[in-house]
Amino acid sequence: MSRPPAAPRASRLPSLTGLRFIAALLVFLFHTTWQTRFVGGSGGDALGEVFANAGFYGVTFFFVLSGFVLTWSARTDDTAPRVWRRRLAKIFPNHLVTFALAGVLMLIAADPFTTKGTLANLFLVQAWFPDLTVPNTMNAVSWSLSVELFFYLSFPFLLRLLNRVPVARLWPLAATLGAFTVIAPVVGQYAVTGTPLPFIDDGTLSFEQIWFVYFFPPVRALEFLLGMVAARLVLAGAWPRIGLLPAALIAVGGYAVNSSVPYLYGVAGTAALWLTPLVAAAAVSDDRGTRSPLRGPVLVRLGELSFAFYMVHGLVVTYGHRWLIGTGDPLPAAAGAGLLFAALLVSLGLAYVLFTWVETPAVRRLGPPRPQAPVAVPVAPAHTATLEAKE
Fold first, then answer.
1. C-alpha dihedral sign at 373, 61, 249, 317
2. Considering the entire predicted model, what is its pTM?
3. 91 Cβ partners below 8 Å, 6+ apart?
């Protein structure tokens, strides 16, 4: 006997769009206060301590978000080639432009190129190489696009499998995936070998161990899959009533936990345990039309720019710091904070240009139009969300 039709779901998820910018800002703050320090003194030390894990947390948010949004907006009459074309139209134009910009900046700075690293970055396969010289080449942040590309290519097949899972088994599946995010660092710690890197954590970890937990696409797919399962649970009406505020408190508390655990446990998938409730709660808030501070027009607009912002900010931060501060000590608090804010504004300005003149036209011209039929998963009514996941 077929299920009766249910009320239509929200077609847009603006709270998740707003959260995208917050996550991108976390990555920016990590790169400007910890990885590359703009602010010196005790204030800079405090900022570094607060945001030392922020970049890792932000990236995990985007991986969970991708799985959630792609599942939420999936349609039964869509095809794998159409899904792939839409996703490639979304990520590759921005990638190619920032790849070229990175090449120009590297030439100006006389930075070395490697054939393997350059080609791996160009074709977005750099995350597959357990080689210190490859994943962060050219525009370093594009390593995450390499992981996302794997997600997108796998998604049509993963969704077909997930839609066969009865609702009653979705929570055990989510628990299993969550357990594997904890097991992965154990495997990396004790089953992966390599030469220790003295400049990472306590100097006992090899790049191969870090690569397995942080870069290796199949391991990072655990976060993407958790997002997919969470979307199925929300679609099925099986997600618990967790409001935005409690979900945000879980995310903040989880950040504190991940900042205090051993390195391999804090840099990757375990963050999904704390962030998935926030993604689901934001979607439920939009679906039900309840109040959400994440739905304001300014934050939503910034969220729309978040992918472009993510793609340009690393180049602004890296070369801005190198040419304006150099290898000496960070600037005094006021000057460093001013330069950091300037880097944020420049990144936002470049993001606007990239979004307006590259990303939006490319998606419009290269991406196929969406089919008109609504989504239909086996256990829930359709979602027709138009939100694009940030890659």
1. negative
2. 0.92
3. 124, 145, 148, 149, 307, 391
Which of 207, 179, 390 lies closest to 270 in space, CA to CA?
179
- Rounded Cα gap, residues 57 and 251, in angstroms: 10
pLDDT score at 368:
73
CA-CA distance, 244 to 255, in Å (whole number)?
Answer: 16
Structural tokens at position 310: 């993510």
CA angle at 350 for the pair 344 and 351, rounded to the nearest 5°: 85
Q: How far apart are CA 340 and CA 23, in angstroms?
A: 17
The DSSP code sequence of 124-135 is T-GGG---TTST
Q: Identify the segments of the chain with pLDDT beneath 70.
A: 1-11, 369-391
Tokens of 365: 């011209």
What is the per-residue pLDDT across 203-220, written as a single tens digit (0 to 9) for each? 999 999 999 999 999 999
Burial class, 260, CB count within 10 angstroms (exposed 0-12 / middle 13-18 / buried 19+) = exposed
What the block records as the tokens of 277 is: 């409730």
Structure tokens at 35: 């990885």
**CA distance linking residue 51 with residue 28, whole number of Å:** 10
CB contact at 8 A, 223 and 64? yes
Task: Count CA within 13 A, CB hemisphere, residue 391.
Answer: 24
Q: What radius of gyration, in Å, describes the C-alpha atoms of the chain?
A: 21
Under DSSP, the state recorded for 137 is -
Instruction: Enumerate residues 6+ apart whose C-beta is below 8 A from 272.
Output: 60, 63, 64, 178, 181, 222, 223, 226, 227
Termini Cα distance of the chain: 40
- C-alpha to C-alpha distance for 359 and 9, rounded to whole angstroms: 27
- Separation CA 285–CA 308 (nearest Å): 26
Angle at CA of residue 322, ends 318 and 323, nearest 5°: 120
- Alpha helices per DSSP H over the chain: 14-30, 41-50, 54-72, 80-109, 115-122, 143-162, 170-191, 207-210, 217-235, 244-258, 263-266, 271-288, 297-304, 306-324, 333-354, 360-366
